[in-house]
Hints:
This protein is an alpha/beta fold. The chain has helices spanning 2-19, 40-53, 95-99, 104-115, 146-157, and strands spanning 27-35, 57-61, 70-75, 80-85, 88-94, 165-168.
Amino acid sequence: MLMKRVAAVLVFVFALAWATPAHAAARVLYYDASQAQEFVAVVNQGAQIWNSKVTNVRLEPVPAGKTPNIRVYADNGWPRTYTSSLGNGYWYMGREAVNDGYYKPRIAAHEFGHILGLPDRRTGLCSDLMSGSSAPVSCTNANPSSTEAATVNRLFGTSVAVPAGYFTFTERAA
Length: 174
Protein backbone atom coordinates (compact mmCIF):
# COMPACT_ATOMS: atom_id res chain seq x y z
CA MET A 1 0.00 0.00 0.00
CA LEU A 2 2.80 2.39 0.92
CA MET A 3 4.63 1.56 -2.32
CA LYS A 4 1.52 2.42 -4.37
CA ARG A 5 1.24 5.81 -2.65
CA VAL A 6 4.93 6.57 -3.14
CA ALA A 7 4.69 5.53 -6.80
CA ALA A 8 1.59 7.71 -7.26
CA VAL A 9 3.34 10.71 -5.71
CA LEU A 10 6.41 10.18 -7.92
CA VAL A 11 4.27 9.92 -11.04
CA PHE A 12 2.48 13.14 -10.05
CA VAL A 13 5.76 14.99 -9.39
CA PHE A 14 7.28 13.88 -12.71
CA ALA A 15 4.10 14.78 -14.59
CA LEU A 16 4.05 18.21 -12.98
CA ALA A 17 7.71 18.79 -13.79
CA TRP A 18 7.18 17.67 -17.39
CA ALA A 19 4.14 19.93 -17.86
CA THR A 20 5.73 23.07 -16.38
CA PRO A 21 7.50 25.10 -19.05
CA ALA A 22 11.16 25.75 -18.38
CA HIS A 23 12.14 29.37 -18.00
CA ALA A 24 15.12 30.46 -20.04
CA ALA A 25 17.91 32.16 -18.21
CA ALA A 26 18.31 35.87 -18.83
CA ARG A 27 20.81 36.76 -21.53
CA VAL A 28 23.76 38.52 -19.89
CA LEU A 29 25.25 41.52 -21.64
CA TYR A 30 28.58 42.77 -20.34
CA TYR A 31 29.30 46.48 -20.37
CA ASP A 32 32.60 48.32 -19.92
CA ALA A 33 32.23 51.71 -18.24
CA SER A 34 35.97 52.17 -17.59
CA GLN A 35 36.09 55.04 -20.10
CA ALA A 36 32.92 56.76 -18.84
CA GLN A 37 35.12 58.98 -16.64
CA GLU A 38 33.07 60.81 -14.00
CA PHE A 39 29.92 58.98 -15.08
CA VAL A 40 30.87 55.41 -14.08
CA ALA A 41 28.48 55.39 -11.10
CA VAL A 42 25.58 56.73 -13.16
CA VAL A 43 26.26 54.17 -15.92
CA ASN A 44 26.06 51.44 -13.27
CA GLN A 45 22.82 53.01 -12.02
CA GLY A 46 21.37 52.98 -15.55
CA ALA A 47 22.18 49.27 -15.86
CA GLN A 48 20.57 48.51 -12.49
CA ILE A 49 17.42 50.36 -13.54
CA TRP A 50 17.03 48.03 -16.51
CA ASN A 51 17.93 44.97 -14.41
CA SER A 52 15.10 45.83 -12.04
CA LYS A 53 12.54 46.18 -14.86
CA VAL A 54 13.26 43.31 -17.29
CA THR A 55 13.76 39.57 -16.92
CA ASN A 56 15.07 38.30 -20.27
CA VAL A 57 18.31 40.29 -20.27
CA ARG A 58 20.74 41.39 -17.59
CA LEU A 59 23.40 44.11 -17.80
CA GLU A 60 26.58 43.29 -15.88
CA PRO A 61 29.97 45.01 -15.58
CA VAL A 62 32.48 43.15 -17.73
CA PRO A 63 34.58 40.73 -15.67
CA ALA A 64 38.31 40.42 -16.26
CA GLY A 65 39.09 38.31 -19.30
CA LYS A 66 35.69 38.81 -20.98
CA THR A 67 34.93 40.93 -24.01
CA PRO A 68 32.18 43.49 -23.39
CA ASN A 69 29.05 43.64 -25.51
CA ILE A 70 28.74 47.34 -24.67
CA ARG A 71 31.33 50.07 -24.21
CA VAL A 72 30.48 53.39 -22.59
CA TYR A 73 32.45 56.58 -23.13
CA ALA A 74 32.21 60.18 -21.94
CA ASP A 75 32.73 63.26 -24.08
CA ASN A 76 31.61 66.86 -24.42
CA GLY A 77 28.94 66.23 -27.09
CA TRP A 78 25.35 65.01 -26.85
CA PRO A 79 24.63 61.49 -25.58
CA ARG A 80 24.44 59.05 -28.48
CA THR A 81 24.45 55.35 -29.17
CA TYR A 82 25.86 53.23 -31.98
CA THR A 83 24.50 49.69 -32.17
CA SER A 84 25.96 46.86 -34.20
CA SER A 85 23.21 44.35 -33.34
CA LEU A 86 20.73 43.68 -30.56
CA GLY A 87 22.64 43.96 -27.28
CA ASN A 88 25.90 45.12 -28.86
CA GLY A 89 27.40 48.53 -29.45
CA TYR A 90 28.70 51.56 -27.66
CA TRP A 91 27.34 54.79 -26.32
CA TYR A 92 28.50 58.18 -25.10
CA MET A 93 27.46 59.93 -21.91
CA GLY A 94 27.62 63.41 -23.42
CA ARG A 95 28.35 66.30 -21.10
CA GLU A 96 26.35 68.75 -23.22
CA ALA A 97 23.03 67.26 -22.06
CA VAL A 98 24.30 67.03 -18.48
CA ASN A 99 25.40 70.68 -18.58
CA ASP A 100 21.97 71.63 -19.94
CA GLY A 101 20.40 70.05 -16.85
CA TYR A 102 19.15 66.67 -18.08
CA TYR A 103 18.96 64.02 -15.37
CA LYS A 104 22.05 61.80 -15.59
CA PRO A 105 20.39 58.49 -14.60
CA ARG A 106 17.70 59.09 -17.23
CA ILE A 107 20.36 59.68 -19.88
CA ALA A 108 22.20 56.48 -18.93
CA ALA A 109 19.03 54.36 -18.86
CA HIS A 110 17.89 55.90 -22.16
CA GLU A 111 21.16 55.09 -23.92
CA PHE A 112 21.14 51.52 -22.56
CA GLY A 113 17.59 51.35 -23.96
CA HIS A 114 18.99 51.82 -27.48
CA ILE A 115 21.43 48.95 -26.96
CA LEU A 116 18.46 46.87 -25.79
CA GLY A 117 16.68 47.52 -29.09
CA LEU A 118 14.51 50.57 -28.43
CA PRO A 119 14.38 53.54 -30.81
CA ASP A 120 13.88 57.18 -29.88
CA ARG A 121 10.22 58.05 -29.39
CA ARG A 122 9.87 61.81 -29.27
CA THR A 123 6.59 61.77 -27.35
CA GLY A 124 7.57 64.61 -25.02
CA LEU A 125 6.30 62.54 -22.09
CA CYS A 126 8.42 62.19 -18.98
CA SER A 127 6.83 58.76 -18.42
CA ASP A 128 8.41 57.49 -21.66
CA LEU A 129 12.12 56.85 -21.09
CA MET A 130 12.74 56.71 -24.82
CA SER A 131 11.22 60.16 -25.35
CA GLY A 132 14.72 61.36 -24.49
CA SER A 133 15.31 65.06 -24.78
CA SER A 134 11.77 65.76 -26.01
CA ALA A 135 10.70 65.42 -22.36
CA PRO A 136 11.27 68.52 -20.21
CA VAL A 137 14.74 69.09 -18.75
CA SER A 138 13.05 68.85 -15.33
CA CYS A 139 12.11 65.19 -15.98
CA THR A 140 13.77 62.86 -13.47
CA ASN A 141 12.03 59.63 -14.47
CA ALA A 142 14.79 57.15 -15.31
CA ASN A 143 12.54 54.08 -15.50
CA PRO A 144 11.30 52.51 -18.70
CA SER A 145 7.54 52.44 -19.13
CA SER A 146 5.82 49.06 -18.90
CA THR A 147 5.56 49.04 -22.70
CA GLU A 148 9.28 49.74 -23.10
CA ALA A 149 10.20 47.00 -20.60
CA ALA A 150 7.82 44.54 -22.29
CA THR A 151 9.37 45.31 -25.67
CA VAL A 152 12.87 44.59 -24.35
CA ASN A 153 11.66 41.36 -22.74
CA ARG A 154 10.05 40.35 -26.05
CA LEU A 155 13.19 41.19 -28.05
CA PHE A 156 15.40 39.16 -25.74
CA GLY A 157 12.85 36.37 -25.39
CA THR A 158 13.20 35.57 -29.09
CA SER A 159 16.02 35.50 -31.58
CA VAL A 160 14.72 38.49 -33.50
CA ALA A 161 17.42 40.62 -35.07
CA VAL A 162 17.46 44.37 -34.61
CA PRO A 163 19.37 46.29 -37.28
CA ALA A 164 22.42 48.33 -36.44
CA GLY A 165 21.73 51.99 -35.87
CA TYR A 166 22.79 55.38 -34.59
CA PHE A 167 20.76 57.27 -32.01
CA THR A 168 21.40 60.68 -30.51
CA PHE A 169 19.94 62.43 -27.47
CA THR A 170 19.53 65.72 -29.34
CA GLU A 171 18.72 69.11 -27.95
CA ARG A 172 15.04 69.97 -27.78
CA ALA A 173 13.69 72.47 -30.24
CA ALA A 174 12.96 75.76 -28.52
